Amino acid sequence: MDFAPLLKAIKSKEFSPLYLLHGEEPYFIDQLEEALEANALQEHERAFNQTILYGKDTEYLQVIDAARRFPMMAERQLVLLREAQDMRSLKELVKYAENPSPTTVLVISHKHKKLNGNLALTKALKKNGIVFEAKGLYENKVPGWITTYLKGKKYGIEPEAANLLAEFLGTSLGKISNELDKLTINLPKGTTVTTKIVEDQVGVSKDYNVFELQKAIGHHDVVKATRILLYFKANPKAGPLPMVLGSLYNYFSKVFQLKELHRKRAGKQDIMQALNLRFEFFLQDYETTARNFSEAGIRQLFGLLREYDLKSKGVGSNLAGKHENELLKELVWRMMHLGKGGG
Q1: What's the number of CA atoms in the CB half-sphere (13 Å) around residue 58?
Q2: 305 plus 235 within the same structural domain
Q3: Do 246 and 182 fall into the same domain?
Q4: Residue at 208 is within a domain
Q5: Which segments of 219-267 does DSSP mark as H helices, in order?
Q6: Prediction pTM value
Q7: Residue 53 placed within a domain
Q8: In Å, how far from its chain's centre is CA 222?
Q9: How many CB atoms neighbour CB 206 within 10 A?
């Protein structure tokens, strides 16, 4: 079941006797767990009808004993098993999952990884309850998620500001939501978040960031790339090498894909859909880079990214031990000298 309809069902007080909330992205699990805790019971019912257990300190019989109890002066009881990934005897809950109590809502929160789908427990949970997999968001989906999150709180955001935040904050939705909440705490409802607001309140520069660096490389703008590298040197947290390498790989992967789409004579809308672009000005940027780099050049560029990823980890004696910024400076110089000929 998808996140939005499941959250809506919980808030509408449509409950299942069993919930398995598992997967890589804890944000979604936390949101659903909070919704269940807020809606399954009324405030005065919680003292006698809500049980919270933690996997590391719990055995399966404790969970079953709690789940088999009858609610006291309430329609149902709620049993929350948190951090179930740390519970050694979790698989033994299969007998309860095969025959759950109709007056209990048992919630199993299994964070940071999936519960094996081939387990008898997982199959029983799917048969008699609701299983939700909390998948991590791909990087190219984060700006859209930021836009939707802020819209739900009655704020707007410029596309460039959403991309800037996505580049800076990564893909952890918990971290992103916390930063967005702090960002908007003093902004009136209805405000559109701009790059200036992001720069002032989050501390990331709209002119000196990974997004602008990849554009400078793609457009062969040596002066701009040099300024960004100097900014990164003075502000190491603004451009850590692992984040820059990942961003450059994703960017040039799209450029390479664009060249393939051109060869197939794909139309503009098909291209934007294939590259997951929401606005034409993003496509214009990729088009410029595609003209500046041949396919052979992009292949060599991928090789450089792999080479410097290894060197940043100490593999490659000629550069091992150098400061991250020095490695990045040499990488950018070599990338910008590939060009149309590829070397």
Answers
A1: 26
A2: yes
A3: no
A4: no
A5: 222-234, 241-263
A6: 0.68
A7: yes
A8: 32
A9: 17
pLDDT exceeds cutoff 80 at 181: yes
Which amino acid makes up residue 116?
Answer: N
Are residue 326 and residue 244 in the same domain, yes or no?
A: yes
pLDDT in tens, 264-317: 999 988 998 898 887 787 889 999 999 999 999 999 999 999 999 888 877 764
Q: Where are the alpha helices (DSSP H) in the chain?
A: 3-11, 26-39, 46-49, 60-68, 94-98, 120-128, 142-152, 159-169, 173-184, 195-202, 210-218, 222-234, 241-263, 268-274, 280-292, 295-312, 324-336
* H-helix or E-strand spanning residue 193: strand 192-193
Q: 37, 7 in Cβ contact below 8 A?
A: no
Q: Is the domain of 166 the same as that of 234?
A: no
* CATH number of the structural domain spanning residue 180: 1.10.8.60
Distance CA 24, CA 9 (A): 22
Q: Please tell me the distance from the alpha carbon of residue 123 to that of residue 78, in angstroms, as a whole number.
A: 22
- pLDDT at residue 342 tops 70: no
DSSP letter, residue 240: -
Q: Which domain holds residue 302?
A: 214-336
Residue that finishes a domain, picked among 134, 154, 173: 134
Are 319 and 327 contacting, i.e. CB atoms less than 8 angstroms apart? yes
Q: Please, are residues 109 and 9 in contact by the beta-carbon 8 Å criterion?
A: no
Question: Is there a single domain that holds both residue 195 and residue 281?
Answer: no
- Are 193 and 179 in contact by the 8 Å Cβ rule? The answer is no
Q: Are residues 249 and 304 in the same domain?
A: yes
What is the rounded distance in angstroms from the CA atom of residue 238 to the CA atom of residue 205?
8
Q: Which residue has the tokens 């000196």?
A: 208
Backbone angles phi, psi at 104, to 5 degrees: -120, 140
Residues 78 and 157 in one domain: no
Q: Amino acid identity, residue 226?
A: T
60, 92 Cβ separation under 8 angstroms: yes
Helix (H, G, I), strand (E, B) or coil at 21: strand
* CA dihedral of residues 158, 163, 168, 169 (deg, nearest 10): 90
